[in-house]
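Lab notebook: predicted structure, single chain.

Context: the supervisor wants predicted structures on file for every construct in the current expression panel, including those that have not yet been purified. This is the next one on the list. No modifications to the sequence; it matches the entry in the shared construct table.
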Amino acid sequence: MRTGNPTLTSTTFENFGVYRQDSAAAPAGAMTINGTAQKTGFLLALALGSACFTWSQTFRLVEADPSAAIGSVAPWVFGGAIVGLITALVICFKHTWAPMLAPVYALAQGLFLGGVSAGFEARYPGIVVQAVGGTFGTLGCLLLAYQSGLIRATENFKLGIVAATGGIALLYLVTFIAGLFGFSLFSSLFGSGIIGVGFSVVVVSIAALNLVLDFDFIEQAADRGAPKYLEWYGAFALMVTLVWLYLEILRLLAKLSDRR
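Prediction complete. Output recorded below exactly as produced.
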């Protein structure tokens, strides 16, 4: 069961009961797709709430002093990013803690995304609405396509998306480490030129297709009769992909705005 999502590995749902022929016959206490969907919605609501708080606080300060926009965003961005990263790492190693820590992760990511979004909105008015619409529109379309069978997560499909996701992660890591030492690598990929826009389109596409792999992975886990607490873990994993997709769409829209 391959997936490009680093929080969902081939061992995540292993040894949690045998396969059931009919997932509707799930025993009490077993993971279900509906349960995972409900918990995903709850986490999204928490993230939206904390993001709105950061957003309102940021723009309240911006109205008083426009030059303070970046400074007012920074604490929320770094605080939310650090707490979110630590929480995500703990959840990945302690799956049973997901019911307690997944909401914390969602709140932290909301603070992070709210700050980042406010920074982008201050520079590119209207960009956040487009990015949010693009993210949820992509989620809805891919979910419908997956449920209708238009997109199937075959083994070759999974292998290609996993390889592409790993390549992107490695590129980002190398670029980040080089930046710490003052080197600017692959600047054309991150600029607003044709190459940069094309690169962002590819990354957005790969991030979106990871949702298909996540849907398939969670469906298989539910068929295996995984324990109930893994609904929270599955919801957390979907949140990771959605956060990545939103940020990449935001970056793509920013590049397109710079070209106007």
